[in-house]
Amino acid sequence: MSVTFESRYAIGPNESKSLDTNGLRDNFLIEKLFFEDKVHFVYSHYDRYMAGGAFPITQKIKLETIEPLLKEPYFLSRRELGIINVGGAGVVEVDGQVFEIGAKEALYIGKGAKEVYFSSDNASNPAKFYLNSTPAHHSYPTKRVTKAEANKIELGSMETANHRTINQMLLHTVIQTCQLQMGMTELKPGSVWNTMPSHTHDRRMEVYFYFEVPEGQAVSHFMGPVDETRHIWMQNEQAVISPPWSIHSGAGTSNYTFIWGMAGENMDYDDMDKSPITDLR
């Protein structure tokens, strides 16, 4: 079987207070997503969100169903899938239709697609397909979105060390989805803070995937309620689950890029409860 998985149950802010560093990491940090010639997922019980990676090197790999978890005949029977390639050029085949996906390009696959395959153009520079999946109630067309086609927003400044470009890629203002939203934020050289001022949104959860973190550098990801924050130190190509009750913000020892994915009943990107920096504790 080419698909492996692990499951994470949801906990609330009161339960999280009792966690030490290892407990916090065990519940929220995804240390490894990419396994050679495998598809790997972490299933979160927050909005039943799945985050994972497909890493084809020597062979074409299939997105198979996970019978003990999904109990469906194929993976996308009742789900939608978002893909952003963070490696070399590759190909995603969806029910016989071929999509060439380059670095930092995205693909949305709607509910009902039966056969999905991943492959790399070059084994010496393989594709790394970062995957997010959520339950879906309707089938929308499969569509590729390049970085040039993304809705771009410039935020922050060099003076506050958070000058960044937000690339909204799989968002309802760009393509149709049921509830999944994904995008990519690139920090400018000299900037280290993301999502600052921070915020919460009680009607949707989020997953952050950090990449392009230079060797020897790291990112400190902040989470928790506004008045009682915690942090998780993260390395390159690691992800972190952000519950609806938690802020999600990070600062690196260098600039970096991260992919954000969201799900829940809230599709309004700007509907959030902002937290003034001076209120953080």
Structure description:
The structure is a single chain. β7 (90-94) and β8 (97-101) form a beta hairpin. The strands form five sheets. This protein has a seven-stranded mixed beta sheet, with no helix packed on it. It contains three helices and 24 strands. The model has no long low-confidence stretch (mean pLDDT 96). The chain has a single domain, classed as Jelly Rolls (Sandwich). The protein is mostly beta strands and 281 residues long. It has helices spanning 13-16, 21-28, 67-70; strands spanning 3-8, 29-30, 39-44, 49-54, 61-62, 79-85, 90-94, 97-101, 106-109, 116-120, 129-135, 143-145, 151-155, 164-170, 181-187, 193-194, 199-200, 204-211, 219-224, 230-234, 238-242, 247-252, 257-264, 273-274. The chain is globular, with a radius of gyration of 18 Å. Pfam families: KduI. GO terms for molecular function: 4-deoxy-L-threo-5-hexosulose-uronate ketol-isomerase activity; zinc ion binding. It catalyses: 5-dehydro-4-deoxy-D-glucuronate = 3-deoxy-D-glycero-2,5-hexodiulosonate. Keywords: Isomerase, Metal-binding, Zinc. Its cofactor is Zn(2+).
